[in-house]
Amino acid sequence: MAESKTPPRRRGRPPKSQNVSYQDTRQALIEFGLAVLTEKGYSYTGIDEILRLAGVPKGSFYHYFDNKEAFGRALIEAYGDFFARKLERSFADDSRPPLSRLEAFVQDAKAGMKKYDYRRGCLIGNLGQEMAALPESFRELLSDTFRDWEARVARVLQQARQAGDIPQSACCESLAQFFWIGWEGAVLRAKLEQSAQPLDRFFHGFMALVQSA
Description:
Layout: H1 22-40, H2 47-54, H3 61-64, H4 68-91, H5 98-115, H6 123-129, H7 137-162, H8 172-193, H9 197-212
Helix pairs in contact: 1-2, 1-4, 4-5, 4-7, 5-7, 5-9, 6-7, 7-8, 8-9
């Protein structure tokens, strides 16, 4: 994150509060961090901005996180968990055919991007594009997150193959990997164009691909 000067680490306790616990404050920092980073990216965001939004004194940051890198890792893990739950809300819906579950995820994602005027994208994709300037410890976390998401899409495609909705020759794992490679590009383009059309174009193309694989 961009920061003009790294403050000395302080291990003292934050100001006492009868209403806000340690865990509440730590979670607030993560939530505001996620909101800011999905818009701006890691390299262009300063800790001071997140602290100000969360209402946390600057000197208290190091009570909750060892350093900026540890904060970044916590954000990656939190976003990965959040998005996995988001995926499962669509993918675990047995009332829908498998391919319709993929479409449900896309529709939900489109609504989310529109809600924030296409300013927010995918934190994992954003950080992946910045990787050359990020701590090396982020690389494995980001890769693991993508692999988890790919496995979830692959399961849906396997169910579609079992149902006869896609050819038996389809390689679900490769298609799932292709889905996320293309999806992240579509999200980037949607932010650029401030439109859901790139998401629709990608998904229609992906559906044509899986049904002819």
